Amino acid sequence: KNEVEQSPQNLTAQEGEFITINCSYSVGISALHWLQQHPGGGIVSLFMLSSGKKKHGRLIATINIQEKHSSLHITASHPRDSAVYICAVLYWGSRLTFGEGTQLTVNP
Amino acid sequence: DAGITQSPRHKVTETGTPVTLRCHQTENHRYMYWYRQDPGHGLRLIHYSYGVKDTDKGEVSDGYSVSRSKTEDFLLTLESATSSQTSVYFCAISGGVTMNTEAFFGQGTRLTVV
User: Fold this and answer.
1) A-proximal residues of B, 55-84, CB under 8 Å
2) Which residues on B lie below 8 Å from A94 (Cβ)?
3) Contact criterion met (CB < 8 Å) for A30 and B107
4) DSSP character for B30?
5) Is B21:B73 a contact under the CB 8 Å cutoff?
6) Rounded CA gap, B41 and A23, in Å?
7) Which stretches of chain B score pLDDT less than 70?
8) A99 CA to chain B: closest CA distance, Å?
């Protein structure tokens, strides 16, 4: 069982829809990263969270430390948001562990 | 991307040949990692390092070895490449001295073993 669980694994949406991707982890962490990877591309860090909420453009990331859960939201989704979104946690001692990723497809 | 580079970015090699991939960082981060990414499997940890000459195995370490002789460089070696090692390899770093929640990711190396 992966220490980091992401859901859903695959998500198809229509342009304009509100999208949520979830990430759960099992033990205390120092930080959580949301990452984006376009097909054939490198990995880009979208957010680093250790508490609360962050917003950048149409992207919002939240984390609940007590519940060991984080969500990534995309408002007014667009076909260019189509990518794999990956949750990665930094456990105390700084070891990185990745979730399996969520393949998002936004259709026009 | 901040101070992490992988080389080469693309490589085609023959079965049975040795291959070394290099991850270089200029961030002075403590931890360095090698992952492979394959369809349907996400990112799987091969080996990681928590300091110079300190390394440990990940979940898919068979057929791979690593070395870290200085903070900046983490080398991944395939002693005798096999077709099952065709993959995209990513390096990552974490554990900065001033901001230990940072993590950065390399651009990836596409390796094809024919």
Assistant:
1) none
2) 30-31, 50, 94-95, 100
3) no
4) S
5) no
6) 17
7) 1-2, 96-101
8) 7
B1 touches chain A (CB under 8 A): yes
Residue in B45, B95, B105 closest to A42 by CB: B105
* pLDDT per residue as tens digits for the range A54-88: 999 999 999 999 999 999 999 999 999 999 999 99
Place of tokens 């497809």: A105
| Span A49-59, pLDDT tens digits | 989 999 999 99
Q: Please report the DSSP string for chain A in residue order.
A: --SEEEE-SEEEEETT--EEEEEEESS-EEEEEEEEE-TT--EEEEEEESSEEEEETTEEEEEETTTTEEEEEESS--GGG-EEEEEEEEETTTEEEE---EEEEEE-
